[in-house]
Amino acid sequence: MSDVKIEINGRSYQIACEDGQEDHLQRLAEFLEKRLQDVVSTVGQVGQDRLLVMAGLLVADELSDAFAEIDSARANPDPDTVKLLQDEAEEKAEAKAAHIFELLAERIESIADRIEAS
After folding, report:
1. How far apart are CA 111 and CA 32, in angstroms?
2. CATH number listed for the domain at residues 1-76
3. What is the secondary structure of 15-39 as a DSSP string?
4. Which pLDDT score, from 0 to 100, does residue 48 have?
């Protein structure tokens, strides 16, 4: 575990996180700080707790909108995107099949060589 010092609305906090997640946690804190400053610019300094609740609600609203967009995209997929993904899947499947056939051919040749040698 690591400790990361973040600053939100001029106050410092020591937050524990898993090793390797320090930069990610710092980016999340910067994201929250930006939303908090958006609230401050609209309503002013109305108290740390209230500001954090309002900023949290803004982030939750953005997350809700993102989930709604994802659900909409799943329900009504873009035909071009579907075609692109299908083409990519076909290419991968063909490459994998070609590789398997190459391995089988090598195995068959190996068996044939052993039969000829005996």
Report:
1. 64
2. 3.30.160.880
3. EEE-TT-HHHHHHHHHHHHHHHHHH
4. 84
